[in-house]
Amino acid sequence: MPIRHAIWKVGAHPVPLSESSLVSEQLLEEMIVAAPRLLSDEWMLIGRQEYTGFGRIDLLAIAPDGALVLIELKRNRTPREVVAQALDYAGWVEKLAADDIVGVYGRFAPSRSLAADFRQRFGHDLDEDSLNQSHQIIIVASSLDDSTERIVSYLTERDIPINVLFFQVFSHDTEQLLSRAWLLDPVHTQASAAATPAASPSEPWNGEFYASFGEGESRSWADAVKYGFICGGGGAWYSKTLNLLNPGDRVWVKVPGYGFVGVGRATGRAQPAADFRVITPEGEVPVLDVAKRGSYHREFVNDPERCEYFVPVQWLQTVPLENSFQEIGLFGNQNTVCKPTTPKWRSTVERLKERFTNFDKI
Q1: Domain 209-355 belongs to what topology?
Q2: Which long-range contacts (CB under 8 A, 24 or more apart) does 181-188 make?
């Protein structure tokens, strides 16, 4: 059913705010460029009104894993028309090479460096090998109809990473207020984009999960091995994919910049740092009381969007960072957890099973 909001002014006699509209959808685009977090806290804008040869893309963003995000505003088109246009543009986005993307950013932010700004925004280097390995399609609409919802749902069920971000405007005295809602859980769209890199064939998922563990100031692989967990945080993009894991799922862990370091089985669901406890010789204690080799975003412990989340893991086999396993051709991705459906992941797991021979021990 179409998404609609209602906003009420709180009081003894609640008063509903009247629905309004922006002067133009151009204003919405300008607002997004001025404050990109209107769209997402997890993306960085890199392009605007970029010419494809058969039309102009409204906005282009990049995610922390180097995936591109195509953003199309409804403007004066029907939602169905803008979905069709976005799918058309997605074929152009998919073929962008690294030099093309640098050129797009140069036109969007003259004299700025994409690599430098990416590192400042996300805290790690932009890996050219992972740049534009996948993409998402985001439709921004002020209204939505049943037909568009059915189309988007159909595509999503077939693992096309598409979503709709719905904005609604309300009047309050002389001001206008903007509300925002996603049609689908954005984590599902993120996971779909990560599952199969662009231009890669897909196959049935092999049941094996991949995890990226960001060793550094924020977290420590040695802590993870000692206390039995994987984790991610600092923003919803990094933590929400941990929810893909259920008890019993097997997960292969890679530390970016090193290689694969372990395999284990999840023994529980993702929990925020404030609630997660680990077993020590002194008994069960809060993880932040004993995991001291990393910060684990302690400064955000009371912020459900930015705090660290932990998944308990029973390790089947691990190695220290200096003995990590990496070779040309192995799968890699910056998403904290994903369910890859590319043949490269199947061949990677086959190689990992040769290296981590205790992968199936009880």
Answers
A1: ph1033 like fold (3.10.590)
A2: 181/3, 181/5, 183/3, 183/144, 183/149, 183/152, 184/152, 184/153, 184/156, 186/40, 186/236, 186/240, 187/236, 187/240, 187/241, 187/243, 187/244, 188/156
